[in-house]
Amino acid sequence: MSGVRRPVGSADKGATKPTVTISFAGFNRAWAAWMGDRLERRGLRVVYMRWDSPTEVPLVDLLRDLTLAEGRILIVVSEWYFQLGPRTHEEWNAALREVVAPDPTRFAAVSITTASVPTATTVLAPVELTNMGADEAERRLLDRLGLPADPMPLPAEGERRGRRFPASTPEVWGGVPRRNTRFTGREPLLNDAYHLLQGAETGAGVLTLHGMSGVGKTQLAAEYVYRFGSEYDAVWWVNAEGRVTYRRLMAELAPKLGLTTGAEYGERLRAVRDALRRGDPYSRWLLILDGADEPDQIWDLVPTGPGHVLITSRNPEWGEHNSKLLEVPVYGRDESVAFIRRRAPRLSEEDADQLAEALEDLPLLLDQTAGWLNDSDLSVEEYIGLLEGGIDGDVVKVSADFPVAFQTAWSILLNKLRETVPESVDLLRLCTFFAPGFIPVRLLREMPHDELPEQIAGLLNDPLLWNKAINQLRQYSVVRLESHEALGDETVSSGERLYLHRMVHQIVHKDMPDEDRREFIDVVRRALAAADPGRATDTRLWDEYAEIVPHLKHADVLNSKDRNVQNLVLNCLRYMYFTGEYQSGMKLGERAMNAWRALLGETHPRIWELTYHYANLMRAAGEYRRTETIERAAVDHLRTQRGEQDLDYLRAANGLGADLWGLGRYDEARELYEWLYPAYRDLLGEQDSRTLNALNNLAFALRLLGRYQESLEIDRRTMEARRQLLKNRHPWTLFSEVHYATNLRLLGRYTEAESVQSKNVREYRLVMGAENPQTLLAEHNLALCLYRIGERGKAGPMFTRVLERYERKLGERDPLTLAAAISHSCFAREHGDIDQARETSEYVITRYEAMHDEGHPFLAGARSNHALILRSVGEREQAHALAEQAMADMTDAVGENHPWTLGCAVNASAVRNLVGDTESAADLSRSAAVRGTESLGRTHPLTLSARIAHAADLRGLGDRREAEKTEQEALSDLAATLGAQHVHTMSARARNRPYWDFEPQVS
Question: Does residue 870 have a pLDDT over 80?
Answer without folding.
Answer: yes
